[in-house]
Amino acid sequence: MKMRKLVAAGLVGAMVCSLAGCGGSGSAAENKGSEAKGEGSYAQVTMAYSTFNNIPAAEDLDKVEEAINEITREKIGAEITLMPIGIADYSSKVSLALQGGEKIDIFHSLGDFNNAVSTDMAYDITDLLDTCAPETKELVGADWLEATTQNGRIYGIPTEKPVALTPMVVYRQDVADELQLDMSSVNSMEDLTPILEQVKAGKPDMTPVAAVQTGEIGVSTTYGDLDFLTDDFYKPIGVLMGDDMTVTDLYSTDLFRERCELVRDWFNKGLVMKDAATTTSAAAELMSSGNYFCYVAAYSYPEADTAASLEATCGFDLGAKMIGSAYLATSDLNALTYMVASTTDVPEAAMKFLNLCYTDKDVINLVIYGLEGRDYVKNDDGTVAYPEGEDASTVPYTAQLSCGTFGNFFLMYPMAGTDPASLEWELEQNKSAKTSPAMGFTYDASKMKTQYTAVKNVISQYLPGLICGSLDPATEIDKFVQALNDAGYSEILADKQEQLNAWLETK
Amino acid sequence: MTESKTFNRVATILLTVLVIITLLPILLIVIASFTEEQTLIRDGYTFFPKNFSLDAYYYMVKQGAVIVRAYGVSIFVTVVGTCLSVLLTTMLAYPMSRKSFKFRNALAFFVFFTMLFNGGIVPSYIMWTKFLHIKDTIWALIIPNYLVTAFNVILVKNFYQNSIPDSLVEAAQIDGASEFTIFRKIMFPLAVPTVATISLFTGICYWNDWTNGLYYISDEKLYSIQLLLMKIMNNIQALRSNSTAALLGTGTVDLPGTSIRMAMAVIGILPILLIYPFVQKYLVKGVVVGAVKG
Amino acid sequence: MVKTGERPQAFPLQLKRVLEEKMERAQALPKKKKRFRNLPLFLIALPGVIYLIINNYVPMFGIFLAFKDYSFVKGVFGSDWCGFENFKFLFQTKDAWIMTRNTILYNVAFIILGTITAITVAIMICELGKRKRVKFFQAALLLPNLLSWVVIGFIAYAFLNADTGFINNTILRGLGLDPVTWYSTPGPWPAILVIVNLWKNIGYQSIVYMAAISGIDKSIYEAAAVDGAPKMKQIFSVTLPMLKPTVITLTLMSIGRIFYSDFGLFYQVPQNSGALFPVTQTIDTYVYRGLMELNDVGMSAAAGLYQSLVGFVLVLLANWIVRKIDSDNALF
């Protein structure tokens, strides 16, 4: 019995502690907040950004913040709090925090810019841009800002980075050499077929084509001059083809049917991985197994750079060949857009900080690489590397893998091993890539939500199988289109057309 | 007697088969975690891989400090959470079982209702972070969601109702014991078999949970082991299923491979394997003691 | 007021006698302080009640979101009302029928098969007693419950994938049969999902029944054994009837959640394969797939409310029926 009493007392004690604990830790947090505010009268700006890297420990993060603050206090009279969030939870955490009234002043989109605007998450920065960030406005340019404009108001700033993605086939150089394949003859998906057949014949154990990711073997990236009109890249709903300004149903087109028939043919001949529609492995993993010859994906680097940068993860000598050209549409630009939160109490300071994120080399590199010496070292040629014996997972702070998601890519130190000359090429591509006539148009789906949910379900049911060859286009495309129409597809197309027409009139 | 022997034999065989079926897939994971990455992708998962490798575990050892810390967090949360939960649950369940308690049905409905309806994550989030300030404290892993669950309360209530006669309480009242004393000295100890059950359930629940951490923890020091594993898995999943990778142009992200993911799963269940025999000892004891008393 | 024990057989005789004596004395005493009799019991329940209010009841205001067009600027209370607009997507297409049918049928299958297997396992384990290997069995059966659905998805994939899967590669090939592309063949999936669900939950579910069985007084069995009842008959005439209350309670609770499905089971295990949607689509997966990009607060609240309401109505109904037949075992 005594023992029991003790246990019971312990439990009660623990409970009391827990209640006290709530209060105690809460006030501790508040203290910390007021402490931070106590340091002079600097505006407090919190920026939430996504990262693929480990989330750094609080004290390691503090040092980076302090280094940034030294710059920002002087330049814009503000102090910054960094809030790195793992990429998988980023959207949900930011949305939850904003709904919960937490302080986030700056956040970015992950392909969901339209959604952020239609739910009032983003602050209207049209005027602030002129007063607080004229340099950035100048740098990004009016054309790009079109992509983050809705109804004449600007809601965000696209990241300044290589956006022109060129479809390429990434293949095993060693196998190509051994079988004497003429890769230079490959200029389209169709051209690949004879090459794949040669691989199959010469290397019966090898599956020629690997999936890039679940449900995608390269069809989505190689449609050519197709504007998805701000739909998800992999699940487009209504598209523009070439210069025609009619919103078109992609899935009823000959282009789509031909592509499906092509991959079906590959599938039947055993040229493509059977489980592409459901695989749990990504291209790099598959390639590294040595079982696969190539995959098709879009990259923003030139051929040689792409191949070189992928070699480490794939573990073989690689080659890359472009099989199309880049085509820019609104969503290429606004997929990663920095926005000021609509709930912010310091819009000016937030905007001024964003300005630094696009123009100040020191701020940018602090956010991406952390502190020099501790988190990275500079090489003589201007590139940077992790300190001796460290890597991305061991340094106290780095957001290097979010490369390109932050502010101005062209002001970031290049990582050791990349060719500085390719930056020029990428910048050039950004300017010279062919652009959709509807560049700048963003579709607001808020009136079509009901139809959208049904259509998305239909698409995830049929599309992966069709574009991976596991469904027979002869019978399934018709079923697919029928199901889409039942789900209210045509209403979305009509709504999209209407918005597009209205947008064209303002041009 | 022979008849009962036959029964025992049949039962043993059936259970053995069932256990083998249960364990085979888990064995497959364990083997996969020791398989060389390339072999895994080339030949798929097999019980007899061609090339073994400890790479996955080297990777884990490299993350050693983080993992040890996360284990610590998980164990603390599981133990404290389970104790608190058991206490609160039995305290709530006991009055519901008393026939003389006027509000017993109302209370039962009040409890059951929480099982059906919820306001979604947003209001809870506001409640816990804005008003109760538990964000980034260890309590964020313990208090929200799991402390009192309708399922457990109803289990305990049922146990009291079906296995413990009212006369026992009345007898104690006659001896002049207050309701608190009755609960503390008689009813709580008597509930040992169900307490053992719900502690096991709650314990597993706390051990497996990562959602509380996902919402309320951003400090890596407070990551539980499951949250840590989940974060890594989620990031891989995000890269795979979204167009993010293409959007970011990050072709070179070095993801943990399949074998590492399997090793993570093994690491998640390993401590349970080690601790379970001890837990079970007490569990079985508890059940037996309860059965004799009841 | 004084009753003899509800289930006197569950009591050792000695204790019973002591109790009876005390009760006799009690009848002589006057009833005291009747007015506040409920108070101490209520105080005991209070901490739990407060917790449920904070954790469950206050946040229930989120249900209003189902009827609102959510705006971040206007917040939960300030957003505009939009009537039943948010509910429409649940009933828009013929998918509505498929996903509702799947959700209910799978849940019914899980309730029935889950209960039967869990009871069988529990009885077997309890009958075998405290041998070392029995302990091992119990622990082993619990293990799958510690794996997340993502990992279980990987395991299923290891068995089922077309090129290198264990079933195609080893079993079917061994038998000289043609490989099956499991992830595009809907036929076997209802069985696969039921098996995977049982595999994961059987150990966990049987624990409730084990506790219930060990709560049964051994003397009843002893009496039955003296009467010469064979083991199987003991099980059917003693164990199973004694488990009835537990079965009823657990079933009632499952009915309350009959419109919910385990998202991981229906999304991760079939690897989100489109060809399997006719047999794997449930309300939860449909909502997830539909709202993944829209991320609409109001619509997800609407889906949750719909699922809860149906469960609520069904459970009230079921509870009412139970109350009619056997009021002791009703939930409330």
Task: Describe it.
The complex is a heterotrimer of chains A (507), B (294) and C (332). Chain A has 507 residues and is an alpha+beta fold. Chain A has a domain at 40-162 and 331-436: D-Maltodextrin-Binding Protein, domain 2, CATH 3.40.190. Chain A has helices at 2-38, 58-76, 90-99, 113-118, 126-132, 134-140, 142-146, 173-178, 189-202, 254-268, 283-288, 303-314, 330-334, 347-359, 361-369, 420-432, 449-467, 473-486, 489-506, and strands spanning 43-51, 78-86, 106-108, 149-150, 153-154, 157-158, 166-172, 207-209, 226-227, 240-241, 292-299, 318-322, 327-328, 337-340, 377-378, 384-385, 434-435. Chain A is globular, with a radius of gyration of 26 Å. Chain A starts with a helix and ends with a helix. The model of chain A is unreliable at 1-38 (pLDDT under 50). Chain B has 294 residues and is mostly helical. Chain B is 77% helix and 0% strand. Chain B contains 15 helices and no strands. Chain B has helices at residues 2-33, 37-43, 55-62, 64-97, 104-116, 121-131, 139-142, 150-163, 166-174, 179-190, 192-208, 211-216, 225-241, 244-248, 258-293. In chain B, helix 8 packs antiparallel against helix 11 (192-208), helix 11 (192-208) runs antiparallel to helix 15 (258-293) and helix 13 packs across helix 15 (258-293). Chain C has one domain: MetI-like fold, CATH 1.10.3720. Chain C is flat, with a radius of gyration of 26 Å. In chain C, helix 4 runs antiparallel to helix 10 (231-256), helix 5 packs across helix 8 and helix 8 (189-214) packs across helix 10 (231-256). The chains are: A alpha+beta (507), B mainly alpha (294), C mainly alpha (332). At the B-C interface, helix 1, helix 4, helix 5, helix 6 and helix 8 of B face helix 1, helix 2, helix 4, helix 5 and helix 6 of C.
